[in-house]
Amino acid sequence: MKKIILATTALVATAGFAAAGDISLNAAAKIGVDYTGKVGAAKATSVVITELDFGINASGESDNGVAFGASLDLDTTQTDTATTQNVIGDPEAYIAFGGLKLTVGAVDAADDGIQNIADAGLFGIGVDNIAEAYTAGGSHNINVSYALDSVSFVVSTGSDSKDAAIAVSGSFSGFNVAVGYNTDKTTGAATKNTATLALGYKMDAFSVNALFAQQSATGAKDLNAMGLSVGYSMNALTLTATYAQNDSAHPTKAGKTQSGFGIGASYDLGGGLSVAGGFGEVNDVTQADFGVAMKF
């Protein structure tokens, strides 16, 4: 739900001109408990987390039909009594005409938009991160997209880097298909090229999504990642199961690669309030969370 704090045409008397456009505010919050199991000699831990996410969005349209706008996020996270994140971020501005849109600012890489694996839990226990470990690399601040019926094309790059990404996606008869390619030329590191394939299907209350990615780098072995998530909704209840693996080294066990699985559930109480939680293992460490989510 969006709360409109300024809409339609406003006359600014002190400046002597008319400003036409909409400025809206959207907000979300989460309150819950996050559990991480024993890792090596370290004991299991439980922390209380509070997340707040406010978005400010402005939009307008010129006399000849060119749409334009800007957005900004205000995010903060508190873990127990410590504020672990307090950010004014994601500044973006765009202009668009027809199906063509140019966005400049803190944009995501083009292949980030095709990531489709659902995580389990309120905050997310991290299974999807394993599937998406090789995608959306690099530093990008320019994004160009074009939508034609049910097909969309996206290209992104960095004005001060050689990083680039491209993605094409489409949907038909309940199926969603997307392919992406990302070149990450981070200074001082080998160039990493990642190809991604995302597949999805939704029928009534049932949905399934799969993600496959392969990353190659000069002088290094190719790395593969995959993920699968299944969802089912029944009235106000939504159930999720997810699994992922990749070829990167396990963080604590030599000779083993990374993997994770999880199951989650959320119940919509109406009015923007829901209860959610998840349980699973990420790299052989038990992860769980539970709490409430709010949308305003």
From TrEMBL:
<keyword id="KW-0732">Signal</keyword>
<feature type="domain" description="Porin">
    <location>
        <begin position="7"/>
        <end position="284"/>
    </location>
</feature>
<feature type="signal peptide">
    <location>
        <begin position="1"/>
        <end position="20"/>
    </location>
</feature>
<protein>
    <recommendedName>
        <fullName>Porin domain-containing protein</fullName>
    </recommendedName>
</protein>
<dbReference type="GO" id="GO:0016020">
    <property type="term" value="C:membrane"/>
</dbReference>
<dbReference type="InterPro" id="IPR033900">
    <property type="entry name" value="Gram_neg_porin_domain"/>
</dbReference>
<dbReference type="Pfam" id="PF13609">
    <property type="entry name" value="Porin_4"/>
</dbReference>
<dbReference type="GO" id="GO:0015288">
    <property type="term" value="F:porin activity"/>
</dbReference>
<dbReference type="InterPro" id="IPR023614">
    <property type="entry name" value="Porin_dom_sf"/>
</dbReference>
